User: Which sequence fits this backbone?
């Protein structure tokens, strides 16, 4: 019996083999989303726990890697939802182009804060598309949405960020 | 300014504040942690709460004693 068939039948050794084959890649994907090694480790285990629980729904003829990435993305999204920062942003800010390194550092910090306040589903696609420069197609497959919806979410995330940053005094051209 | 230019500008700004993840390598074996989780949390047994059974019983009784309500129920489904 093939590895995936044995896994789908509940064989723990097959699951371990799949875990060892894929967990580093799953971890690398998650850490790019949540940006914290400890959380990414826990979420990798959580991902494989979900995979193990859902084994009877897995089609052994299917693509395990893509399935695992999809589950990992959902686990990371759940984490972003629960850990979303609700901090109030401070008032007043110098422009992003200032030459003072201390002010630039403060500006970067506020950009981070504004970014972390994005709703989780927008933060997910914005992190992958804008920061990690992941192709839209990969993001769509991992999040279970179409490429068109990925584009829409990136567009909305950019619009929300621009609005937030402009309100903080960080000049971003609004179009 | 096009969407792409907008995205490019925001991308540059964001990447100044939040660098792309460089270190994505896992440094420890997570299998022992995985095994612990499997042992601690066996697969959940699906349980139907008592009030769902009660609701199903009431609905069945209504359908048996008032067959005319089947059409009304179908209409609302």
Assistant:
């Amino acid at each position: 019996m093939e590895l995936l068939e044995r896994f789908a039948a509940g064989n723990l050794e097959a699951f371990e083999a799949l875990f060892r084959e894929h967990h580093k890649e799953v971890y690398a994907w998650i850490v790019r989303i949540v940006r914290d090694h400890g959380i990414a480790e826990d979420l990798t285990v959580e991902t494989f726990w979900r995979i193990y629980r859902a084994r009877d729904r897995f089609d052994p003829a299917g693509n395990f890697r893509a399935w695992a990435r999809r589950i990992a993305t959902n686990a990371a999204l759940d984490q972003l939802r629960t850990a979303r920062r609700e901090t109030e942003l401070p008032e007043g800010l110098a422009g992003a182009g200032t030459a003072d390194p201390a002010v630039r550092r403060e500006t970067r910090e506020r950009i981070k804060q504004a970014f972390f306040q994005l709703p989780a589903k927008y933060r997910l696609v914005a992190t992958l598309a804008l920061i990690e420069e992941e192709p839209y197609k990969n993001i769509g497959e991992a999040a279970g949405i179409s490429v068109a919806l990925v584009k829409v979410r990136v567009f909305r995330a950019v619009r929300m960020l621009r609005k937030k940053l402009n309100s903080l005094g960080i000049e971003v051209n609004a179009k | 300014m096009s969407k792409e230019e907008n995205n490019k500008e925001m991308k540059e700004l964001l990447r100044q504040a939040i660098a792309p993840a460089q270190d994505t390598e896992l440094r420890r074996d997570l299998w022992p942690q995985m095994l612990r989780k499997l042992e601690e949390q066996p697969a959940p047994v699906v349980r139907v709460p008592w009030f769902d059974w009660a609701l199903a019983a009431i609905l069945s009784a209504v359908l048996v004693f008032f067959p005319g309500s089947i059409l009304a129920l179908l209409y609302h489904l």
Remarks:
- The interface with chain A takes residues 1, 3, 5-7, 9-11, 13-21, 23-26, 28, 30-31, 33-34, 37-38, 41, 43-44 of chain B (CB under 8 Å).
- The two ends of chain B are 49 Å apart (CA to CA).
- DSSP finds four helices and no strands in chain B.
- Helices of chain B lie at 3-17, 31-40, 50-65, 69-76.
